[in-house]
Amino acid sequence: MIEVTGLTKDYGPRRAIDRLNFNAHKGEILGFLGPNGAGKTTTMRILAGYMPPTSGTAQIGGFDLIKNSIDIRRMTGYLPETVPLYNDMTVFDYLKYMADLRHMKNGDDQVEEAILKVDMKDRAHGYIGNLSKGMRQRVGLAQAILHNPEVLILDEPTIGLDPGQIIEVRKLIRDIGKTKTILLSTHILSEAQQICNRVLIINKGRIVVEDEPEKLQMRISGSHNILLRVSGSVDALIPFINKLKGITEINKHGDNTLEIKVSPSVDARPEIARAAIKNGFDLLELRASNISLEEIFLQLTHDDSMLASADRVNNAVEEE
Amino acid sequence: MKNTWTIAKREFNLFIISPIAYVVAFMLMLILGIIFFANMLIAFVNTYDPTVQFIIAPLVTLFLFSTPALTMRTIAEEHRSGTLETLLTAPVRDWELITGKWLGSFMFYLVVIALTWVFPIILNFFVDPGIDQGLLVSGYLGVTLLVGVFVAIGVMTSSIFNNQIAAFFATLGILLVFWMIAYPTQIAASGGGRSILSYLDLSQHFYNSFLIGIVAVKDIVYYLSVTVLALFLGTATIEARRWR
What we know:
The complex is a heterodimer of chains A (320) and B (244).
Chain A: E1 2-11, E2 14-24, E3 29-33, H1 40-48, E4 55-60, E5 63-64, H2 69-75, E6 76-79, H3 91-101, H4 107-117, H5 133-145, E7 151-155, H6 163-177, E8 181-186, H7 189-195, E9 198-203, E10 206-211, H8 213-221, E11 224-230, H9 238-243, E12 247-253, E13 257-262, H10 269-278, E14 283-288, H11 293-301, H12 306-319
Parallel strand pairs in A: 3-8, 3-9, 6-7, 7-8
Antiparallel strand pairs in A: 1-2, 1-4, 4-5, 9-10, 11-13, 11-14, 12-13
Chain B: H1 2-17, H2 19-45, H3 53-71, H4 73-81, H5 83-89, H6 94-115, H7 118-126, H8 133-158, H9 164-180, H10 183-187, H11 192-200, H12 204-207, H13 217-243
Helix pairs in contact in B: 1-6, 2-3, 3-8, 3-9, 6-8, 6-13, 8-9, 8-13
């Protein structure tokens, strides 16, 4: 649905994004992760048709970004990072205005529907200027999904929302993502983990890594980690665990906790549990402790280690 | 084209709810009223009949100075608040945005122009056998065309700036330059240079024709061309800003 080739944008001498290549398919939610100033917003603005790239091309639904800008804008919904809205309009009037600009038949019905989807029915006829940040965010989202677009570009869609709303909005995004293509940027890594099919980590205008969130964790850590906590001192247990199949490394954390590294092909948890109980330990906790996306993100976007980490990821891919 | 109308309606409504539009319209009517009664008094004291030119000539000057205050907001504000991003990522062509902004503001001015008709109607009671209808029609036609030019230049300038105040002064500057560009040549120069500057001068096409009852095709074409040119430049500015 989205095919990006060699996309580059310069702001004067500063290169904001540098030869980006990626694609996104129908029914996919592609997450865009990166520190501030990495080029996420620039990429999204270009794809939404706000500004042209310095070089490179992109196709959305078979349309060329520059030649068929209007066609692309027709099939794309876009939520800008700053959620710009007209404070002097009511929610309904604003959405109706945007619906009119999109020449939508049954504009009123579709506006009502969008308002329901973002749960703003009780504030539909209130002025936007009186809304809280979270509510403005939802109005912006309603504007983006108003015309039921094939492609949805969301720049930090859950920022400023309260926890309840975040869950609602994520659910909405997941639902839409089943049949449409969604490109979303976020700072919240757990969010990417929860709703994205694929994650693209971008730093200093370049894509550092691209993969499914789960696979990314596997690649980086290279193994499964298991956390074991028992009552009493754990030292006596170590030799028994060491005998089990697939154990590569055991680290002690405190008196009663072990971090056990296991080769990815084995699920050693049942064996570990049995070993602990058989040897007279009370099992308090036993869980898989994968390296979090946060850690991956920090590793990959940290200036010095960036290239090294990227290499590690690539090596891991080759080994697989 | 449909988008032009959608944007124009929104722009017009924005004037209707905006206090600055009412302040400007009120001041304009007030000043025009004072000038009108002063001119009436002078005419009666000196025992000659006042004409509609007493209304139309100051009206044009008032529009010259008030237009920048009303058009400065049009695009600069959308840019500052970021709403331009939503508009430009909707399927709206750049020229539709500019012409929509122009049309909306122009429609508001048409309402103001209609309000000033109260003065010729009053005047009509005082002169015998009534005011010169030809002068009235040609004068108001000229005013309307000129306002079209003023608003187009205002919208064009507003598309250059993020800051309304900058847009205000730039518009005023551009309008004044083209309002008086032939003025120095009337004293000194002669020949080709003079006729070119006279042709470019916005006021020459008004004072020497519409105001004195002449409706010439060349003046109408001139005003319409300047309007279209300004709207074209405004569109080009929006286009250029995308590339920055």
